[in-house]
Amino acid sequence: MQIGERIAFYRQRRGYTQSQLAGLVGRSTDWLSKIERGERQLRRVDVLTELAGALRVSLGDLMGQPVLMEEDDERDNIPAIRDALMAPGRLSRVLFASDAAAPPDLRQAEQLVEFLWADYQRGRIGEVVERLPRLIHSAQQIEDAATGQAPDVRRRSWAMSARTHHLAATTLSKVGEADLSWIAAERAMKAADEADDPLVLASAARAATHALLAVGRYDDALSLGETAARWLGPQVAAGDPEALSLLGMLHLRTAVAAARRQDRAGADELLGQAERSAVRLGEDGNYWQTGFGPTNVELHRLSAGLDLGDMSWVAKRGEDVDVAHLPVERQVTHMIDLARALSFLARDDDAVDLVERIISSS
């Protein structure tokens, strides 16, 4: 869809008339009507930002940030993921205690969730979507059996569930299921609380910031990210590379939240904090599937610039960033961001060429 069509889509979803939305941004109904029909072009970032705020969506939504949709074959398992997350048995362990099934092998479940995380980073979203329903069911059964287990087994059980629901939240956000992503993120946080491990909790908080960003709750994303970052203090002080990576990613996600609410100073400060963590880490690592390091900081700086309207800067600088050594998912996200900037600058041929490169390499 073109920008005008997206505006019309989100306006109707919010229940606004053209007159109401036009009034919210101080424009005439005729102006908005022409924008929606494509008779008038809209390339001013400040106006797009106003519209995004009124419609309670991100600037990327209106600009055409791609959403990965399920495949057309038999691997559309989003309804099955929804059923797994919203099963009545998850509402009360007391009411449904008699329905509890024997749990699967914990070690195998731990291995499977890490295997699927690797698939996610390779860009194999279809495979992850296909296998998530069964993995979520396994995590639920392992949760049910955790009570009464030895302390180490109990903590591992809850950590496995937190990792599973984190993966679900991140994947669901990728395919445009923002509300389901929030449900999965909430489950990840609750499981992480029980796991009694600050790294598991910080990782789950990262999932929740993704979900909050997806539904446009930028202030809440900032609050959660900053709180989780403080929680990592002792591990960061000790120089733990896993903690440094999680801290850096929390700062990067909150920097994006600040940029989307048009807080340039806040975004710059958070990016600076992430950069300091990357310098301490000294590499582009992948602890906890963060892909964190100096290059990822640069990619988020470009992403924040995109949300702040610095299209020319993003297009110029983005073409010089080497991402070949990063996980495929990060490479593709960067190329999409760059294509969006090129398209906004009316460099449509360059944007199309870049998208075709993404498709041919996938």
UniProtKB/TrEMBL annotation:
The keyword Iron-sulfur does not apply. SUPFAM superfamilies: lambda repressor-like DNA-binding domains. InterPro entries: Cro/C1-type_HTH (IPR001387), Lambda_DNA-bd_dom_sf (IPR010982), TransReg_Diox_bact_type (IPR050807). PROSITE patterns: HTH_CROC1 (PS50943). Keywords: DNA-binding. The keyword DNA-binding applies. Residues 7-62 form the HTH cro/C1-type domain. One of its GO terms (molecular function) is DNA-binding transcription factor activity. It comes from the Bacteria. One of its GO terms (cellular component) is cytosol. This is Transcriptional regulator with XRE-family HTH domain. It comes from Pseudonocardia sediminis. The lineage of its organism: Bacteria, Bacillati, Actinomycetota, Actinomycetes, Pseudonocardiales.
